[in-house]
Amino acid sequence: MTDIQELNERIQRESSFVDLLQMEMSKVIIGQKYMTERLIIGLLSNGHILLEGIPGLAKTLAIKSLSSAIHAKFSRIQFTPDLLPADLVGTMIYNQRKEEFTVRKGPLFSNLILADEINRAPAKVQSALLEAMQERQVTIGDETFSLPEPFLVLATQNPIEQEGTYPLPEAQVDRFMLKVVIGYPNQEDERMIMRQNIANTYPTINPVVRPEAILKARGVVREVYMDEKIEKYIIDIVFATRFPKEYKLNKLTQLISFGGSPRATINLALAAKAYAFVKRRGYVIPEDVRAICHDVLRHRIGLTYEAEAENITSEEIINEILNAIEVP
After folding, report:
1. What confidence score (pLDDT) does residue 124 get?
2. Which end of the chain is more exposed for a tag (fewer CB within 10 A), N or C?
3. What is the torsion angle, in degrees rounded to the nearest 10, for the CA atoms of residue 150, residue 141, residue 121 and residue 170?
4. Does domain 225-324 fall into CATH 1.10.8.80?
5. Residue 275 to residue 281: CA distance in whole angstroms
6. Residues sharing a CB contact under 8 Å with residue 211, sequence separation 6 or more, in sequence order
7. pLDDT (tens digit, 9 = 90+) per residue, 59-98?
8. Beta strands in the chain (DSSP E)
9. 269 near 288, Cβ under 8 Å?
């Protein structure tokens, strides 16, 4: 049996850096608490994140702020249609003096990767990134190199501009643990943003966390207690995306072309544990699953032509499923 009290005490100790991270990021990122919390959950559960929102909502700034608050190597890669795989992973360079080829490593050899406007790069580049995301390794020539730990891809994409973009392959979208959709700030937050950006001085972010603390916290996140009832709840949610009829959701059968894979189940469980860790709890409750469910599933549910014709989104389908399935 897991000693919940002892686990709670450990989490209180190990999660102290979460507050430090949030405080540092809040110097620059005003409002957008939802986005910063999701970035930290991705960091704690070793999962890549896709941020989607129109330009100007501080997606890039949030990722840069997170990397500035960690003693870690950061690379920003601006994805463009003429980008080549070698621009990411590196290449073989001929050394005339030694008369041999040597490896020059690319920007992927960092702890945090900002893949800016990821949907602007062609398929060859996406496949190079896919190996790095899934295998945590890169192949240059006939050599394979492991990537540093922690290694996290934080990608942004613009949902409104489709000219000159390449839709991400389903296999790659599925590699992102969370897809976070960002909306506009409220009026009060926007006033603060305006004041901060027209002031004489601009706040600076100091590194407050070492990579070792993050790797240690990841171990504790996996120890967070999850009851069998919560496990069944997660499995029911994912299975309802595949077989809605079995959950008396007959109208969804015409709207879903494919449901979440086992990766959705794994990521939902891990993200719920990380969410409980951020909330300083040693056990997962149904609210943790519900809080993170949209971010884990919204990019894993395929919509049929009927759903698109009726302007039904994956968000609405997830809401229907959450309302239908009994909470333990």
Report:
1. 84
2. N
3. -70
4. yes
5. 9
6. 70, 71, 72, 111, 149, 150
7. 888 888 888 888 888 888 998 888 888 888 888 888 888 7
8. 48-52, 74-78, 90-95, 100-105, 112-116, 137-140, 143-146, 152-157, 176-181, 256-258, 302-303
9. no
Q: Find all residues with CB under 8 Å of 298, minimum gap 6, and list them.
A: 179, 181, 314, 315, 318
Query: How far is 133 from 150, CA to CA, in rounded Å?
Result: 12
- H or E, element range at 123: helix 123-135
Q: So what's the pLDDT on residue 269? A: 95
Count of CA atoms in the C-beta half-sphere (13 A) of 190: 7
Is the torsion defined by CA of 267, 272, 273, 277 positive or negative? positive
What size, in residues, is the chain?
328
For residue 119, give the amino acid letter. N
Distance CA 83, CA 156 (A): 16
For the chain, domain boundaries: 4-195+208-214, 225-324
pTM of the model: 0.88
Tell me the three state secondary structure of residue 130: helix
Yes or no: say if 50 and 173 are a contact pair by the CB < 8 Å rule: yes
**Averaging pLDDT over each range in 64-78, 161-175, 280-294, which range is the top one?**
280-294
Fold topology of 4-195+208-214: Rossmann fold (3.40.50)
Check residue 3 and give its pLDDT.
78
φ/ψ (deg, to 5) at 289 = -65, -45
Across 106-130, average pLDDT: 86
| Cβ-Cβ contacts under 8 Å for 252 (sequence gap 6 or more) | 240, 244, 317, 320, 321
